[in-house]
Amino acid sequence: MAQKEDILKRIIGHAKEYGFVFPSSEIYDGLSATYDYGPYGIELKQNIRRYWWEAMVRMHDHIVGLESAIFMHPTVWKASGHVDAFNDPLIDNKDSKKRYRADVLLEEHIEKIRGKQQKEIQKAAKRFGEAFDEATYRTTNDRVIGYQEQIDDIKNKMAGYLAAGDFTALRQLIVDLEIACPISGSRNWTEVRQFNLMFSTELGSVSGEAATIYLRPETAQGSYVNFLNVQKSSRQKIPFGIAQTGKAFRNEIIARQFIFRMREFEQMELQFFVRPGTEMEWFEYWKAFRMRWHRALDLPEESYRFHDHIKLAHYANAATDIEFDFPMGFKELEGIHSRTDFDLKAHEAHSGKKLQYFDPELNESYTPYVVETAIGLDRMFLAILSAAYTEETLADGSERVVLNIPRWLAPIQIAILPLVKKDGLPEMAKSLFNTLKLDFSCQYDEKDAIGKRYRRQDAIGTPYCITIDHDSLEDGQVTLRERDGMTQQRMAIEELPAFLHDKLHLSALLSRLLD
Ligand code: ATP
User: Fold this and answer.
1) pTM of the model
2) What is the Cα gyration radius of the chain?
3) I need a surface site. Which of 32, 70, 373, 447 has the fewest CB within 10 A?
4) Residue 386 and residue 417 in one domain
5) How many whole angstroms separate alpha carbon 336 and alpha carbon 285?
């Protein structure tokens, strides 16, 4: 675990040094859980967003886009349940004055027990060697079973208390388990209180007329309240979807782990409207399609898993997460939810306006059901960055840090490098740069020795370097160096555009999504 956390620290350092992600307002010591994207970060982020958008909107003729405003009528958040129920249970330690999420304190305690259980299993694995069967050991060893019972007991109690809103019992559980504050080491806890995660501000400048409005905590509600506007203006028939990307804001209590949990972040959400009764088919379709979208990127297969929700939110009849193996372990990257007609019905009730669809095939009107896919753009960025970050020792004993970013999404796709800064090589390189930049994101670099320039490109994840040398002037060929294997080949300049198009163009990635 410590080693993995160490990796996260190195990724954060690398992201800053190479212009991917900076802490916000750094010269004022930063603002917690808020980050700025640097020159390469913004390119990567835009490329991820574009991949999502093209895969969802362009590849599906029954999905259209929307950009709704961040501010919405305050009743939207009443109808959606966010005013009353978008809360985290908070607890303060009276000695350190530090604030925690009660459920997170309990989860961390569970992780400690799991760590002990894991140690037992590892010890046994060493003892038994080849013959070790972990599954059997887990169900037969008393100590391992005991730890599992403790874990299950805490989990069940916690889920029950949270569902019932019984915060006295939740606090008592923390006390009974003798959980101490990691800062003060004391068990001097306040009561558990509910804390709403929405940021609020005031609309209007005249006091009295001012109304409390919220910064949206999700983009989804903008798609629900525009359901009929979009359906009618784009002449869509059910089933159809509304795709939206944009900023969302949550006043997260536990804001750490870099860009995994931010207070200002970006979501990419699809709301897919279907005929009631068909939602499970579509839930399965979107589960499969979204996983295909991830897999097309060639990140390690074992980094993804589905986590089906057993306990469902009141509005859902099926839900699953796509979890990713981040440096902090498996965590939610994307949620896929079958939300029934909860949201549209709630907006009908609060607005007094009908949000129904007349189905010409059935010759009747109904409130559609919704299947949602929601992924955090920043979390996807972190997934890619953490899978890409690689420290290598090369055959000659030197070290290199390389970002194996999926080549279609790399911030810079091609670096064009004249071997030396004279003899007409820069002119030839610049001419190639001016041609290729029309189709690809390119960088021209003539500073420093070629080896150093290759390392610089490795560190920002550039899949191809093209080197122009003296022979190029004679034979019209260049050296094409590939990032991951560091292999080099000579190629005629006129062959480059077609070769690079096949390797790097977004269409090559999108074609992997076809059936
Ligand atoms: P979590 O349980 O991690 O708080 P959530 O279940 O509340 O997430 P959703 O409301 O389903 O998340 O939001 C959809 C997606 O938005 C998540 O899968 C995640 O990728 C992203 N997301 C949610 N909260 C944050 C945040 N604070 N910072 C960055 N991304 C976030």
Assistant:
1) 0.88
2) 27
3) 447
4) no
5) 11
